[in-house]
Amino acid sequence: MPVGFIWFDLGYTLLYNEREKLFKELLKKRGLALGEEQIEKAFHSIDKRFMREYPGLLGSSGGKFMPRYFTQLCEYLGIDYDIKSFLDQWLAAWEEKRLEWLAYPFVPDVLKALKNRGFRLGVISNWDPSAKPILKRVGILDFFEVTIISCEVGVTKPNKKIFEIALKKASVKPENCLYVGDNYYDDAVGASTVGMEYRIINRFGTFGVEELDSSILIHDVTELLPYLEKERR
To answer: In this predicted model, which residue has the larger pLDDT, 129 or 33?
Structure first.
């Protein structure tokens, strides 16, 4: 059955924040200069490691995972001195800056193009009560017919229940759906429990997810429409 409904994750699928920029600024204050791509790849690598090795931890409060995450990030970059004070500086800067989640610049155009081609769109995300206000602030909430947020339904991905709730709400069959996210162990594993097809976003090819079949990977959501139109032929 051809795909008619596309479900999206939020963080690093449709939304991002400028954590790498902040990290680079703090490094500079410490007299360290690292390239932007080097820092981006470091965050990406640790993200993927946590997704694989510590399921669900990234979705918890920052106080629970940040010390471990930050230590591994610094080790990856070869920063091996005074990590405790650097972490304190990072947490203070994060609180001061209050980094906002932003939509990737290409996201509104992609969502509009998908809607114009007749695809129905929805969200299934592990997030706190800020999810819908963020989507409204960045101007994309109205693209979605159904928005299922874990804190509102009391269950998180990859539990199949959150996908079943979404399917019931949208009155759609799983075989008519495609799920798009960046976390294989939450998104693909969860979607597959109800029979949904899926694609996983990985901005750096197979880097960080070498254990996965590359055929399920896409660079970002701009690749969706060409893929879906090809499938419809």
So the answer is: 129
Question: What are 121's strand-pairing partners?
Answer: 6
Question: Is the full-model pTM beyond 0.85?
Answer: yes
Give me the residues paired with residue 15 across strands.
11, 103
DSSP strand pairing (15-16 vs 197-201)? unpaired
Peptide bond preceding 158 in cis form (omega within 30 of 0): yes
Q: Which residues contact 213 (CB under 8 A, 6 or more apart)?
A: none
DSSP structural state of residue 11: B
Q: Are 192 and 28 in contact (CB under 8 A)?
A: no
Maximum Cα–Cα distance for the chain, whole Å? 58
> pLDDT value at position 102?
97
Sign of CA dihedral 44, 207, 81, 25: negative
- pLDDT tens digits along 150-205: 999 999 999 999 999 999 999 999 999 999 999 999 999 999 999 999 999 999 99
Are residues 206 and 217 in contact, defined by beta-carbon separation less than 8 angstroms? yes
pLDDT digits (tens, 9 = 90+) for 45-54: 999 999 999 8
Tokens of 135: 């989507």
Nearest alpha carbon to residue 26 among 108, 103, 85: 85
Q: Are 193 and 163 in contact (CB under 8 A)?
A: yes
* Beta bridge mates, 122: 7, 146
For 44, the token pair is 């990406």
CB hemisphere CA count around 86 (13 angstroms): 24
CB contact at 8 A, 180 and 157: no
